[in-house]
């Protein structure tokens, strides 16, 4: 969806932030470059890549780049306590961690993202969301919600 939109409207603004704007074409080029970099680092389909950043533009480019590489992304808020981050990283076992933060010490359906869920035990564990499920949800949201209420990223 994003690729098609970027090809059709490369000059349309997709992200506005304090110091400027990013257009669909630029975001797509950066995401493609990131995808190739991840692949060159050995990331393969269904591997997990952690994204730990608070910068909105970088997060969106990171998510798109990870998905384009065939991997799943694991979102991590840098404000999360260190013990929890370590648990997420141990559970998800990402091949690569994308972050601007200081270095921390510490033939199935393609997976799109890995979310943390407390479940019934109260202990967090990863829940894989397949690309098919993500695509199904986006199609549903496209029909169910008013376009003005949806993030422009998906149009």
Structure description:
The chain has 155 residues and is an alpha/beta fold. It has a single domain (2-154), classed as ANL, N-terminal domain (Rossmann fold, 3-Layer(aba) Sandwich). The chain contains five helices and seven strands; from the N terminus they run H-E-E-H-E-H-E-H-E-E-E-H. The protein has helices at 2-8, 24-40, 56-69, 82-92, 131-144; strands at 13-17, 20-23, 48-52, 72-75, 96-99, 111-117, 125-130. The strands form three sheets. It has a three-stranded parallel beta sheet with strand order 4-3-5, covered by helices on one side. A two-stranded antiparallel sheet has the order 1-2. A two-stranded antiparallel ribbon has the order 6-7. Strand 6 (111-117) and strand 7 (125-130) form a beta hairpin. Helix 1 (2-8) crosses helix 2 and helix 2 (24-40) crosses helix 3. The longest helix has 17 residues, at 24-40. Mean pLDDT is 75; it is low at 103-114 and 148-155. Residues 2-103 form the AMP-dependent synthetase/ligase domain. This is AMP-dependent synthetase/ligase domain-containing protein. Keywords: Phosphopantetheine, Phosphoprotein.
What topology does this entry show?
Elements: H1 2-8, E1 13-17, E2 20-23, H2 24-40, E3 48-52, H3 56-69, E4 72-75, H4 82-92, E5 96-99, E6 111-117, E7 125-130, H5 131-144
Parallel strand pairs: 3-4, 3-5
Antiparallel strand pairs: 1-2, 6-7
Keywords: Phosphopantetheine, Phosphoprotein
InterPro entries: AMP-dep_synth/lig_dom, ANL_N_sf
Protein name: AMP-dependent synthetase/ligase domain-containing protein
């Amino acid at each position: 969806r994003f690729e098609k939109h970027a090809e059709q409207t490369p000059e349309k603004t997709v992200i506005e932030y304090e110091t400027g704007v990013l257009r669909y074409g630029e975001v797509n080029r950066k995401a493609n470059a990131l995808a190739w970099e991840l692949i060159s680092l050995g990331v393969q389909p269904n591997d997990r890549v952690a994204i730990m950043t608070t910068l909105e533009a970088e997060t969106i480019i990171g998510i798109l780049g990870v998905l384009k590489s065939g991997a799943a992304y694991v979102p991590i808020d840098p404000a999360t306590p260190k013990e929890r981050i370590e648990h997420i990283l141990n559970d998800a076992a990402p091949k690569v961690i994308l972050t601007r933060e200081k270095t921390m010490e510490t033939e199935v359906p393609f997976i799109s993202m890995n979310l943390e869920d407390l479940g019934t035990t109260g202990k967090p564990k990863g829940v894989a969301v397949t690309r098919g499920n993500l695509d199904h949800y986006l199609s549903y949201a496209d029909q169910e919600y008013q376009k003005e209420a949806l993030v422009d990223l998906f149009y």
